[in-house]
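stuck on whats below:

***
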Amino acid sequence: MPLHKIANVFLLGRVMDRVSVEQACCLIASARFGLYFDTEDANMLKRLAATRAPAAVILVRLMVGAVFLSEGVQKFLFPAEVGAGRFAKIDFPLPEIVAPFVGCFEIACGTLVLFGFLTRLAVVPLIVIMLTAIATTKYPILREHGFWKMAHEARTDWAMLLGSLFLLILGAGSISIDAALTRDERRASRP
């Protein structure tokens, strides 16, 4: 019998055996995807998804997610201006590889942020992208033209960086997939 069928049978029988939901899900993940995933990993993911932030956080998520999603798509639509051409202009190594790589992260993580799914995890690469963007494009402006020119040019970068940090600290808010998943888990754990 294939391992994933064993896992499904195990999940159905978990009520009789009093096996936790986390253990059953870990077994299914292991069987289906060949991943070692234990209950400690499941607890860590639940802690990452947990949020008690207010519903208004959706406004920050919409801003951050939409900007990153848009910028990622534009790296493929307009490679000469904002993709590989831009990366080559600022002397990034292997711009034809790095730009699409960054674009994919912006699209994937921006989408996760928009839906509020694994938000804290999704903003980590976005923070790295913004720190890199500030260091490679805004710091030279600061050196050559001064603070005010850099401040003007960096306003979107700072807004995205601070918005991402905000989401890292507070989570996705109550209107999110993260909140729905942890809300369902809290409901299921009540006696």
Notes: The mean pLDDT is 83. DSSP finds eleven helices and no strands in the chain. The chain has two domains: 3-50+179-189, 57-177.
